[in-house]
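Annual report, structural modelling task.

Input specification for the manganese (II) ion complex:
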Amino acid sequence: QKRYSITLLPGDGIGPEVISVAKDVLKLTGSLEGIEFNFQEMPMGGSALDLVGVPLPDETLAAAKNSDAVLLGAIGGYKWDNNAKHLKPETGLLQIREGLKVFANLRPATVLPQVLVEASTLKREVAEGVDVMVVRELTGGIYFGKPRGFRTDENGEEVGFNTEVYAAYEIDRIARVAFETARKRQGRLCSVDKANVLEASMLWRRRVTAIAEEYPDVELSHMYVDNAAMQLVRNPKQVFDTIVTNNIFGDILSDEASMITGSIGMLPSASLGSSVLTKSRFRLFEPIHGSAPDIAGQDKANPLATILSAAMLLKYGLEEEDAARRIENAVLDTLNKGLRTGDIYSTGTVSDLFMLKASLACFLALL
Ligand code: NAD
Ligand code: IPM
Ligand code: MN
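The model returned the following structure:
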């Protein structure tokens, strides 16, 4: 019997709702695959602010570091939107990414044949077969760059400012993860930047080009981010296989890519601390969507992004590939049965969440 400890960070809004389903799925999968999970739930985000006054309590970070992998729901909500920076739920999320040093965020966007017909807002021939992997740098760039803050300028005008910074080593390591990832896919890597304007992007392009020497089997191209945003909805399959980009561009492009697949409620992610090939201690898995305060508490949240993040946890975090595949297949079969939450672009009817869970459980056990 294999045993793993998993830290669960339900967070806020729909976070606890989707984590609870993902936890049940992991438990059932574990019992079918001979794996025992030891779950520990810890507060983070707004719920931690309410409980202990900080968005990432020391105990939560410590528990995350002491477990085999971390699964996060989502954080944030209207209630905390006007808090000072250090008292925002989002600050807790940035702190845990930084604290676990998970600099590489893999965000796959795959158009599943099962949902394709009604689920994409793009034309069938454009959406069909899309399979893009966004490799987003997660612990640098404008999210973390200094100086940052507010000040008053010489005219007495209030100014807010941030800095986009990348050191060569930060670019080199994310580039290597991206080349390794592309190598295992179609071998095409597109580096997205704004090197026509930003110095940090000029260095980015230079370093990615230099690292490409180590990967002669991967075809590298470069694209400006504005063009990339356009190409993603023009002809994603022809243009993209693997994308590597900075923190903020990756945030935006992955939400855009999610819509090609039908809904942001289905896209998972893995945040890794070193090359995909090398073992590293810390791994964080999270859906790419947020806490969806507009639908929280109404039993409408799509749990699939978190369930698929749990599958990524099994695959990338614990190397339990069979268990991961069991979950992925159960998700496909459930969608194939026509069961879907309201966020999946559709003219059809919305399934009851209970039915969705029951279907997942059946398909998990059937495999
Ligand atoms: P959001 O992703 O929470 O929601 C955007 C839209 O998508 C909403 O209409 C929402 O109802 C819908 N949606 C998202 N996930 C869904 C799901 N699983 N099922 C069904 N519908 C879903 O983005 P937002 O509204 O810009 O942000 C809300 C809050 O979440 C903010 O406080 C933001 O900072 C935070 N946020 C957190 C994370 C995270 O925890 N990783 C990510 C993004 C945003
Ligand atoms: C995400 C979110 C976060 C980000 C926010 C909530 C800090 O949008 O995980 O995509 O920008 O990274
Ligand atoms: Mn985002």
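The chain has a mean pLDDT of 94.
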